[in-house]
Amino acid sequence: MENLENIDATSPECLQDPYPYYDRLRKEAPVFRDPKTGIVSVSTYDLVLEVNKRPKIFSSNFASLLNSGGKGSFDDEEQSILAEGMRRCDTMLTADPPEHARYKRMAMQALPHSRIMAMAPYITDVTNGLIDKFAADGKVEFKSQFAEMLPGIVIADALGIPREDIPMFQAWVRAAILRLNGNATPEERPALARSEIDMQTYFLKIMADRRENPGDDVVSDLIHASMQTEAGERPLDEPEIYSIVQQIFTAGQEATAHALTYALAQLLSHPEQLEAVMSDDNLVANMVEETVRHLSPSHNMWRIVKQDTVLGGVELKAGEPMLIRYGSANRDETKFDDAGQYDVRRENAKNHIAFGAGVHTCLGMTLARLEMVTAIPIILRRLKNLRFAHPDNPFSFATSHILRGVQSLELAFDPE
Questions:
Q1: Alpha-carbon distance 115 to 136, whole Å?
Q2: 163, exposed or middle or buried, with CB in 10 Å at 0-12, 13-18, 19+?
């Protein structure tokens, strides 16, 4: 058996199926410092939870690591392009308390729980409208034609972005994800940085318009709101608003699209469970929890060790980069029986930490759950005799170490 030290966790083979590697991490080295990279992996449920609950020690000020794809620095050309844009601003994902709480509170006020829960009829209409476009075809590439479009429309409408601009936005988001995941080659990264500048330019125009013509949307609410700081109340500036909006769109788009696609892939892979969900509406919510547990769309996330400490019996030094592995934690056999199995009846499925934990619990989890709980029963009801279009090789995973999801999902069904 190959030593852990010799395994390349970023290889395409490991990224396609990381779970054997995760199993070994949990059993052999729950806190593992990779000698090849110096990155510390945290892989068990309890230790990932502990890291999330100690933000003063394990910092989320990891923007340089995230935006550079794990390198921590940018090449000169990429840096020069990014310098043309707005200053980088750490708001929610890459901020620590107390700044994190201030920005998250602003986002929650613009997109409150009551506003989200009132969206169910609207999400139903969007779902049916998307299905109408391919219902007569008898086939669909589910990820691009539905799973990416539903959250894309919902978030665009909430932000006040014209629907005709959604494809452009999705292209920008895909470029951003390539940068974050570290998948891009050095030759590709300047073009991806240029895409970031294009997205900033677009949003500067949106913000200028909402300043003069406020509407019933999140961007307008953020522009005309005030944030409480030690120095008193002040409005958010443009880089702060852009950072919040970008995170809402990127997280709301990508994680939900991955979860929706994975739900269909797993249900079709387990016909008995598919039948159970179709015949019992009470199973739908738990199926959603099991889906996000089993997949963990936000698969790994960075932290920076802020001061010398000990975690899981391992001494850590200030400044060390860390990956907390949600995808491993949610397959921890000490927390979930037969954790590798997909089971829509799992009694403790909701105990997962796929939406994070502590102060960094995901802002968009309520909306993601609502979209899935609303859309999946409609899909299963309308698309009769739903099946894989290519049953011998139904799906594969995108090679990414930050976000995990099915690359594409070709389905067939009886035309309406």
A1: 34
A2: exposed
Helices 166-181 and 189-212 pack at an angle, to 10 degrees, of 130
Q: What is the pLDDT of residue 64?
A: 80
Note the Cα 31 to chain centre separation in Å.
24
- The answer, yes or no, to whether the previous bond of 18 is cis (omega within 30 of 0) is no
| 129 touches 123 (CB < 8 A) | no
291 contacts 256 by C-beta, under 8 angstroms = no
Confidence (pTM): 0.95
Q: What is the DSSP letter of 147?
A: I
What is residue 143's predicted lDDT score, i.e. its pLDDT?
97
Contact in structure between 231 and 241 (CB atoms under 8 Å): no
**β-strand partners of 247:** none
**Chain segment 296-348, per-residue pLDDT in tens:** 999 999 999 999 999 999 999 999 999 999 999 999 999 999 999 999 999 99
Sign (positive or negative) of CA dihedral 304, 254, 116, 154:
positive
| Contacts of residue 94, Cβ cutoff 8 Å, sequence gap at least 6 | 60, 61, 62, 63, 66
Please state, as a whole number, how many other Cβ atoms lie within 10 Å of the Cβ of residue 165.
12
Place of tokens 């406020």: 214
The predicted pLDDT at position 399 comes to 82
* Element containing residue 316 per DSSP (H, E): strand 314-316
pLDDT tens digits, 215-255: 999 999 999 999 988 888 999 999 999 999 999 888 888 99
Percentage of the chain modeled with pLDDT above 70 = 100
Sequence-separated (6 or more) residues with CB below 8 Å from residue 39: 33, 70, 321, 322, 323
Beta bridge partners of 59: 304
Residue 350, SS3? helix
For residue 268, give every residue at least 6 positions away whose Cβ sits within 8 Å of its Cβ, in sequence order, or none.
274, 386, 387, 388, 394, 411
